[in-house]
Structures are given as C-alpha cells and as structure tokens.
Design brief:
Number of helices: 11
Helix content: 40-55%
CATH class of the largest domain: Mainly Alpha
Largest sheet: 3 strands, antiparallel
Number of strands: 5
Distance between the termini: 62 Å
Amino acid sequence: MTKTEVERLPMKQSVLKKLFTYSGNLCAMPDCNNALVSKKGTMIGKIAHIHAAKPDGARFDAAMSDEERRAFSNLFIVCGNCHDEIDDKDNEDDFPAEMLLKIKEEHESIFVKAERKFISKYSDSTQSNDPKFPTHLQALADAFCVSELIGAEDEIKGIRSFIENLAETPYSERDFALQIAQRMLRKGVEELPAEDVVSAFEMTPHALKETMRVLEHHQIGDIDDKWGDGTWTVKLWPRDPDGNPWFELIEFCKVQKLDPRGIIRSLDFSVYD
C-alpha cells in the first residue's frame, strides 16, 4: 500500500478573513501586545499552525488530512516574532498543541462575543422569525363556523399577503396595531378618532402620526383626514378579499384561547389550519 504524500494546500480566502476578523488585530499570544498590521497598513502578523502542514514542521500530526491542516481550527494569527518561536521545531515542548489550541480559543472568543453583540444590536429584528403560512384554514373555519373558508384560495391568498406585510413591520408597531384593533372591537367601531387614541395611549399627536406612518408604509393602517375638516381618524386596513385581519385574529384567539400578541410576533399563522 502506497503512503499518501503530504501536500501543503494554499489557505482559503474565507478562512483568512475569518482568522483576521477574530484576531482583533492583536497577536494571540497572552504576553504579547503586538499589532498584526502596522500603522502604515503593512501586514506584519503571520499565520501559525497548531499542527504543522508538513512532516518536518512543529507538532505535525500524521493522522490529520491536508484539508484539516489548513482548516480554521488548526490556524491562528500571531506577530512575526511569536510565529518564529512557535514554528521552531526545537521549541515543541514549550508550545504543545493543546496549549496553542487553548490560546487560540481564548483569544478569538473575545472577538466572537463582540461580533455577536454587534450583530444582535444592529440586526433587523423583524427577520428573527420566518412566517408560517396557513394552507387550508380548517381551524379558522371551525372557529367562525364558516365551512366556506376551508381551502378557499382567495382567503388564503389574502391572509398570506397580510402576514407578509406584518413580517416586515417592526415589533412595536405590530403591538400598537393589535391594541388599536382591540380598542376598536371593544367600542364596536372600525376606526378611531385620533384624539381618542392620543388620550387612551397617552401619546403625543406627533408620536401617533409617526407610528401610523410606519403602519401605512407596511400597508397595515393609516391616519387620515377623510373629510378634509381636520378630523383625523385612525384605521387598520382590510385584507383581500374582505374583512379586518386584526379583528379576525383577535376573535379567533378568543375561541382558541391563544395570545394574539404571541402570534403576531412569532408569525405562526399555521394555527389557522
């Protein structure tokens, strides 16, 4: 049986980018504070192998494949001085693989955590849940005792369109629209005077206008001076082919003993099935 020859494979660009991202532009060695890039933009850091890429290198592991030797898990970035010490086969006892792996993990974990916090802080919160669309509306039909809803394509299409609009709407505006709908139902109306909303929710007219502007942008509702006399009203838009999707959701949840706020946040409308 022929012994497989060890080949030093070139490093992948994706691995190099990840290594530098998690380096923090600092040598990974605990007692070293050297930067990896000089003030003039010169890369002075070097890629170190935990297990060498070739048999004559430090900490070479014959059991590893060539792909494993060039993998992110086997590499980390240090300054030139530290690299030369680590890479010297005569220093293997001073830099065992287990120790280098621990150093890599501890150093990179600082910047992995920072990256996660940054992404969490600035990511689009509306994309945290994928919508679950209903497909036949059996449960909705049972809740309202309307068998014609079952499998009705125009109804399914209308509900789906509402969910898609809702999915892009920020959470705070979703919650506000739900509370507006609940107030409308309690009062037995399909629209509310703006001054009633301002008073009930203890908000300024400007805040109401801005909130309704967001809802209008997402085709959820609007605020309108429909008579042109300065009498502003707050409305939630109906869905195709007919009906208020908010009233529909609230009444359905009453029958099923569900929390409508949980549904508009999780976007799990498969409960309609």
